Amino acid sequence: MGPCGSKKKKNTEKEPKEKPVKKETEENVPEPRTFGDKLTKEEVKELSEKSGFTNGEVKKLYEYYKKISASQIDDNVIDEQEFEEALGLSGSKFAKRMFEVMDEDGNGEVDFEEFCNGLICFTSKGTMEDRIKFTFQVYDLDGNGEIDRDELLIMLKACLNEQFLLTLKDEDLENMVEQTFKEVDADNSGGIDFTEYSEYASKHPNIMKNLKIELPFLKDIEED
Question: Which of 3, 14, 112, 118 is most buried, by CB atoms within 10 Å?
Fold first, then answer.
């Protein structure tokens, strides 16, 4: 699916319209799950089984998590600003989208369980299936189960600009999108569903490299 925003064009250029990301209504937004200063044995075991991290890795990861979650407000949850600053990508559209995907319950905060579940795919323990699912959700901005041309264009521009610092003309980006749809949209529906994306990503595993988190502590916590 090619690398993912590029140099901003003048106002005379027409920008693709961003779609609103689905949000939970205030009435049914769940409360974040919080933990004490130290995890209990039961919590460690549960989080390990759910995420794929070992017990030791969960404990180490929690220490880093507490630092990030206390960087703005010490409330044992990570908000969007804390997440972006931890990545060194404040104001990044790409980091914002990753935060939204990790925020599984849509309450605007990432608790430690969500943190573990989201980060596992960026480690050696993450499976190709984990990475494909996560990256598909990053591209599927409105959460309707398929990626349309505008969504792909928006995320390509964000990724190129924020991660690779590449400058491409809008025309070149649009050509990349059209070429991608020719290759991936097998049924010519105008949208790339998960099955089509998964088949393409499995054949071109290097596209997973376009969506990455550079967090040094991930290497520090991993056990053999």
Answer: 112
Q: Would you tell me how many other CB atoms lie within 10 Å of the CB of residue 177? A: 20
- Is the pLDDT at 218 greater than 80? The verdict is no
Residue 84 and residue 96 in contact, taking contact as beta carbons nearer than 8 Å: yes
Distance CA 194, CA 33 (A): 29
Closest CA to 155 of 32, 12, 23, 21: 21
- Tens-digit pLDDT profile for residues 84-93: 998 887 888 8
Q: How many CA atoms lie within 13 A of 65 on its CB side?
A: 28
CB 21 within 8 A of CB 141: yes
| pLDDT tens figures, 131-160 | 899 989 999 999 999 999 999 999 888 878
Structure tokens at 106: 């849509």
Can you read off the two tokens belonging to residue 138? 């990053």
Tally Cβ neighbours within 10 Å of residue 79: 18
Q: Based on the number of CB atoms within 10 Å of its own CB, is 86 exposed (0-12), middle (13-18) or buried (19 or more)?
A: buried
The 8-class DSSP code of residue 32 comes to P
Q: Are 164 and 3 in contact (CB under 8 A)?
A: yes
Query: Hey, what are 162's tokens?
Result: 């924020």
For residue range 21-33, what is the model confidence (pLDDT) as tens digits?
444 445 567 788 8
User: For residue 28, with 0-12 CB atoms within 10 Å meaning exposed, 13-18 middle and 19 or more buried, which class applies?
Assistant: exposed
Check pLDDT > 90 for residue 192. Answer: yes
Please state, as a whole number, how many other Cβ atoms lie within 10 Å of the Cβ of residue 22.
11
**CB distance 20 to 97 below 8 Å:** no
